[in-house]
Structures are given as structure tokens and as C-alpha cells.
Design brief:
homodimer; mainly alpha; about 70% helix; DNA-binding
Chain lengths: ~230, ~230
DNA sequence: ACCAGGAATCTGGTATACCAGTATCGTTAT
DNA sequence: ATAACGATACTGGTATACCAGATTCCTGGT
């Protein structure tokens, strides 16, 4: 009962390399198809090849890299089937969460969600896209937690990941954000009235908005997509 | 256009170690809490520590191992929150698949699904649990594929994995299998009539049957569960 | 000018050695 | 007998060297 040091969470070279590469790939500083050399990255970070190798493995498991024996490791491109699948799973989970939420929703939850919505309206009025993105994130997270399924949000994040990397290519317009807030209000209202079917309908409409954006990006950046 | 060698799919030492350990863990030959030594496994397989290390990493990413720096690597136990989450996600996906299926179901699909059901009835009558398990697997897989979401089945398998490892502890009774077939018939009927709500209801009943089994196993084998 | 062939140079996979924390257990002081 | 301590035998993380397959590109022949 002595080591009350909270955790310290030892940080290893692998973590450093992993996070740096993850950021570069997510922000498209490393574009799909780019070749990554273990040796090159290693010297660049001042470590040996081994930690780099481990970091590569992690990134491959997250679907961001493609590693083949004796071939160069490359950044994976987007895949339309994969994106469609992520969307499918996300919708499935969000709807199930809403269903669970409708069964237990109460006024206290309602109040907390309305607080978030109020701030969404504020930042959208100001045109602060960055802040809206953060509140949007919180909105869905809050619903998961308050519905009793905090882990579901982690699963949703998994689904979002592939799309997020894609969305840095989209120019986010303010009018789009306004529509999304309207959707959120609809979802909140359905929860408040505990009408699962209405919530599902609103959610489907909400997520359908992404489709056109993705199609636009596909048309504009076919080179980032895998041929399959 | 010369290398038409189908694929050969080069098999590496990492794969060998990974698969062997994966099987041992899945079949509970390696029980939760068991300590795995890189060096020991390495000499046991006649390879160096490096491939073993890589295999460990893969297993950790699949949630089967717990690796901490400077601590022994151990087989992870079951976690009730994790199992509940896997169940939640699986139900969400299966229902969404059924919903999509109901929108496009036709007689040809119906015939193929009925073929599978007929074989289910046969093997259950014979009490062949092994064959039923395989047909059960196919049943859900067929629905995913015929609903136009083959990838969804892969996601479902991910969810099943943690539960499957648990289910080797359950003594499967024949009467249970009979009930499961009845559920399948209900689901197939709902699809045939393209009634999404009925399909959802049947699916929920189907998956609810697992809960009692899991509770039984928990009561009987608390030592395999993580405390969290 | 072009193309075939092969050497030089990549790639990731493997083996080995060493390091710094951690756990274990025997020893010693009380 | 017991409890504090310390040597020792572990653990996983890192660095390095080497290997075989794949790629690249230069060279020599046409």
C-alpha cells in the first residue's frame, strides 16, 4: 500500500512513434499510398527499428497501414465498402442506444442534453466550426453514457475513425452545421418524449447527410481511394 | 502478367505462434490469468523471442492477452461489462441487418434460408450439437450476405469471439438447441413476410437466451472473470 | 532506341544481446 | 517466529546484425 503514484502510465518509444504517425496519417500529412520505411522513420525519431516496427503493427491493426512481407509498408487508402460498412455499424449502434435511452429517459437527462444543444446553437450562430465539432462529439457521447452504454461510444468512435480522416478533405459549410443542429434537436425531442421510432427516424435522417459529403469527396479525390 | 500463382499466402513464424496460442486460449487450454513467458514459448516453438513478441501483440489487440511493461504477460479473463457490450453491439447489428433484409427479401432468398433451416431440424433431431453449431453460424452468415451486408457478419464474429471462448464452459443441452431452431424459424418467417418489427422482436428473444447461460457460467467460474 | 538481364539496393522477418524495472524468495536482524 | 531487507532470477523494451525475397535501375546486347 505504498505506491499511490496515480499511474504515471509509462510512455514508451513505441507510443511516441505510434502517436506521431497516427496524427500524420489522420491529418493526411501522410497521404494514402505513401511509402513508409522502418529504417527512415527510425533514424528520424532517433530510435532503433524495433519500436518503429511495433508502432507499424499497431497502425496496421487500426487499418491505417498495409504491411506485406518483403514489400514496402504503405498508408492505406480509403475504401468505399469499408466506409459504407462503418456507416452501417454506426447507425445500427446509435439507433440501439437511442432505443435503450428511450426506455429510461428522464427530465434530468433532458436538461443536460438541452444545455449542450443550447451551446450548439450559440457556436453555430457564431460560425465556430471547431467548437461545433467538439459539441457534436459530446452530444453523441452524452446520449451513449446517459443511455447506460458508455462502451457503445467507443465502438462508435471506431466507426468514425475512417470517416474522420476523410472529412479533413471536406470544406465544412455553416449551413450544413445548422441542419445538423436541427437534427440533434429532433433526436433530443424524441428522447424527451421517449418515442423510440421517432428517434430512429431522426437518427437515420441525421446520418444520411454524410453520404452526399462522402460522394463529393470521392469524386474530388479518387486517387485516395483503393480500387476494390 | 506472369505470376499467376494464386497467392501462396506466405506463412510466417508469427502466424504459427499466433494461431497456436489463439487456439489454446480460445479452447481454454490456457486459462485466464495464466502467465505466458516470451522466452519459454519461443524455445517451445524453436524460434526466437521476436516472432513470439509480435504474436503476443496481435493477441493483445484481440483482447486475449494483457501485456504490461516489466510485468508478466497474462491471459485476460472474461469481463462482464465487455461481454454485455459485445452482446449489445451484436444485437444492434443483427437487427439492422434484418431491417435491411426485409426491404429486399424475395423468394429465392427464402428458399435458400429454408434449406439451411431444414438441415438444422435434422441435426437437432439427431442431437448433433457440433453440426448445429456450424449451421447456426451459417444461418446468421447467410442472412448478412443475402441482406447485402457481408461485412456485417465479420463485425458480428468480432462480437461473438469473447462469448465463444466462454461457451466452451457451457454444457449444451439439446432442448436449448431446439428452442434456438424455433427462433430461427420465427426470424425466417418474419423475413419472408418482410415484417421488420416482427424480425426485430424475434431476434431480441433469440439473443436473450444467451443471458441465462452466461450468468450460469459466471456463477460457476467466477475465477475466470476480471474483478472490474 | 529499345529491351532483356542482373547486380545493387531496397523491404520486412528473424536471431541475439543487453538494459531497466519487477517479482520472488532466501537471509538476516529483531 | 517474524518482519525487514537484499541478492537473484525473472519480465518486457530496445538496439543491432543478418537474411531472403522484392524492387529498382543500370548496363550490355540487339
Amino acid at each position: 500500500m505504498q505506491k499511490m503514484i496515480p499511474k504515471a502510465e509509462r510512455r514508451t518509444s513505441i507510443d511516441a512513434v505510434f502517436e506521431a504517425l497516427h496524427d500524420d496519417i489522420s491529418s493526411l500529412k501522410l497521404v494514402p499510398g505513401a511509402k513508409l520505411s522502418e529504417a527512415e522513420i527510425a533514424s528520424q525519431f532517433g530510435v532503433s527499428r524495433q519500436p518503429v516496427r511495433d508502432a507499424f503493427t499497431r497502425l496496421e491493426n487500426k487499418g491505417l497501414l498495409l504491411i506485406r512481407p518483403k514489400k514496402a509498408t504503405v498508408v492505406r487508402g480509403f475504401s468505399m465498402p469499408e466506409i459504407a460498412h462503418a456507416r452501417f455499424v454506426r447507425v445500427a449502434i446509435e439507433i440501439e442506444v437511442l432505443r435503450a435511452g428511450c426506455a429510461i429517459w428522464d427530465e434530468e437527462r433532458d436538461v443536460r442534453l438541452q444545455e449542450n444543444l443550447e451551446r450548439q446553437r450559440e457556436v453555430v450562430a457564431k460560425g465556430d466550426g471547431e467548437a461545433f465539432h467538439s459539441l457534436d462529439y459530446d452530444f453523441h457521447k452524452m446520449i451513449c453514457h446517459m443511455s447506460g452504454h458508455p462502451l457503445a461510444f467507443k465502438a462508435i468512435q471506431e466507426c468514425k475513425r475512417s470517416v474522420d480522416r476523410l472529412c479533413v478533405l471536406s470544406l465544412d459549410r455553416k449551413d450544413e452545421a445548422a441542419l445538423l443542429v436541427k437534427d440533434h434537436e429532433e433526436i433530443a425531442a424524441a428522447l424527451s418524449e421517449r418515442r423510440a421510432d421517432a428517434a430512429e427516424k431522426a437518427a437515420r435522417k441525421h446520418f444520411a447527410r454524410l453520404d452526399s459529403t462522402i460522394d463529393e469527396i470521392y469524386a474530388k479525390h479518387v486517387e485516395f481511394f483503393e480500387e476494390t
